[in-house]
Fold DUF3072 family protein.
Amino acid sequence: MSMAAVKFGGVADRLGGLMSRAQALRLRSLAEEAYQPNQYARDLTSEEAERRIDALRAEIALADSF
């Protein structure tokens, strides 16, 4: 990875950093839709937020398939 990517907020910073505003909004929305508000937390990393978003999407899709 180039030093420019690290210095100017590249991929390395985003992977270990806090979730983005878009992730937070999406996670909160999905958690409410799935009736699991405890899945949302303000201090999640970007990676953990993506895992929870994916899990909630899968759960909602499964519930909608019935």
User: Anything to note?
Assistant: Residues 46-64 form the longest helix (19 residues).
